């Protein structure tokens, strides 16, 4: 298949580009570099041996999308491009609606105009909020806990309406749990700007000496060791989940929503211990109060992905940590070196 990746130089987009090329597909990447670096393109060339077909474009720019659609002939798009920071979404909700929702509408409109009606969408387990009813199945109630989460849910609903209105459309919304890890080459990985908001990149920056200690947000949760439990999955597993999803579109599934997670919960303290083991570096920690908006535990029921897509996560926590450490130690300042 010939596949357009919006947000193609981002963390998940870049790893998915590698997995798609390995599976024998052609990719075209589009990004505005708002949260990624041009250096990713050279790294992808080194890993895959393929010079990336790339457009520096904002996904809200319908005229630019139209030009790309005229020049290429796509079978499907995988739509990653969107802002993704919870705190920022509460400060700048319009930025999230304009880019997260507006970008999706612009992409879908230009796809429709050019007869491309297969799309895989980057959604998030954040649409479940926090529930005591674990593991989370796709049919569980959805809850909006911040504007970022609302953009994800709104885009899922837009796709559902589109598939209902026109049966030529096929869309799969993938609800990601907590992607971590890096390509085993150590050439591409997660490179957050500023202070990392998420656990794994923060831990990696402590290990490499960029930050003195990790603050653990709460050790009084009703979990086995009191710290928050999440479903961390290797980004290469996640990338392969996208390959399975985009290939499944060819079977004309209409609209579907599928969790991508391992099905197992891991605590903050377990992440710290695994990372110390993988890196051989100490990770000093301090305990602080709970982070606003956080909940005790979230992990997937991963059975639908197995039955519908034939996909299961296979990489272990030790592998996730070893691959993050390889990326972080080879690139202490990310792509900014
Ligand atoms: C967060 C977002 C989620 C979003 C996802 C995208 C919140 C409440 N949730 O998920 O909506 O889809 O990122 O990237 O913001 N932790 C620490 N110290 C740190 C950082 C995190 O103890 O410095 C803990 C958290 O309390 C949590 C766990 O580590 O228990 C994972 O946190 P994080 O990586 O931010 O992921 P989520 O909160 O699951």
Secondary structure layout plus pairing:
Blueprint: E1 2-6, H1 11-22, E2 26-31, H2 39-48, E3 53-56, H3 62-71, E4 76-79, H4 86-91, H5 93-113, E5 118-124, H6 147-165, E6 170-176, E7 178-180, H7 199-207, E8 214-217, E9 229-230, E10 232-234, H8 235-249, E11 255-260, E12 266-267, H9 268-279, E13 285-288, E14 297-298, H10 303-309, H11 317-330
Parallel strand pairs: 1-2, 1-4, 2-3, 4-5, 5-6, 6-11, 7-10, 8-13, 9-14
Antiparallel strand pairs: 9-12
Bound molecules: uridine-diphosphate-N-acetylglucosamine.
Uridine-diphosphate-N-acetylglucosamine is lined by residues 84, 86, 124, 126, 178, 197-199, 202, 214-217, 228, 230, 268, 291, 293-294.
Oligomer: single chain
Whole-angstrom Rg: 19 Å
Superfamily at the CATH H level of the domain at 2-180 and 231-262 and 302-314?
A: NAD(P)-binding Rossmann-like Domain
If helices are DSSP runs of H or I spanning 4 or more residues, what is the number of helices?
11
Count the E strands. 14
CATH topology of the domain at 2-180 and 231-262 and 302-314: Rossmann fold
Distance between the termini: 35 Å
CATH-defined architecture of the domain at 2-180 and 231-262 and 302-314: 3-Layer(aba) Sandwich
**Could you estimate the helical fraction of the residues in percent?**
40-55%
Report the principal-axis shape.
Answer: globular
Bound molecules: uridine-diphosphate-N-acetylglucosamine
Reading side by side through the largest sheet, how are the strands ordered? 3-2-1-4-5-6-11
Low-confidence stretches: none
């Amino acid at each position: 298949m010939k596949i357009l990746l919006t947000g193609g130089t981002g963390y998940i987009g870049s790893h998915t580009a590698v997995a798609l090329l390995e599976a024998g597909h052609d990719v075209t990447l589009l990004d505005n570099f708002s949260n990624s670096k041009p250096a990713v393109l050279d790294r992808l060339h080194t890993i895959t041996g393929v010079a990336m077909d790339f457009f520096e474009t904002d996904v809200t720019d319908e005229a630019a999308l139209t030009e790309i659609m005229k020049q290429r002939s796509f079978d499907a798009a995988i739509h990653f491009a969107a802002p993704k920071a919870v705190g920022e979404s509460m400060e700048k909700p319009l930025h999230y609606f304009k880019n997260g929702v507006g970008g999706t509408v612009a992409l879908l409109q230009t796809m429709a105009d050019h007869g491309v009606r297969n799309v895989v969408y980057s959604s998030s387990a954040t649409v479940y909020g926090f529930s005591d009813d674990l593991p989370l199945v796709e049919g569980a109630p959805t809850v909006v806990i911040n504007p970022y989460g609302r953009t994800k849910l709104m885009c899922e609903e837009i796709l559902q309406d589109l598939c209902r209105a026109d049966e030529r459309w096929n869309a799969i919304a993938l609800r990601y749990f907590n992607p971590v890890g890096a390509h085993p080459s150590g050439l591409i990985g997660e490179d957050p700007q500023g202070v990392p908001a998420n656990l794994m990149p923060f831990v990696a920056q402590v290990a490499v000496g960029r930050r003195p200690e990790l603050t653990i947000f709460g050790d009084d949760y009703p979990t086995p060791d009191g710290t928050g439990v999440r479903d961390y999955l290797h980004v290469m597993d996640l990338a392969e989940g996208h390959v399975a999803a985009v290939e499944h579109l060819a079977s004309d599934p209409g609209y579907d929503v599928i969790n991508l997670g391992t099905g197992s919960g891991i605590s903050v303290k377990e992440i710290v211990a695994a990372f110390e083991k993988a890196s051989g570096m100490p990770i000093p920690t301090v305990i602080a109060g709970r982070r606003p908006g956080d909940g005790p535990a979230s992990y997937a029921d991963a059975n639908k992905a197995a039955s519908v897509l034939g996909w299961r996560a296979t990489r272990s926590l030790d592998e996730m940590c070893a691959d993050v450490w390889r990326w972080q130690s080879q690139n202490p300042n990310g792509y900014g070196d």
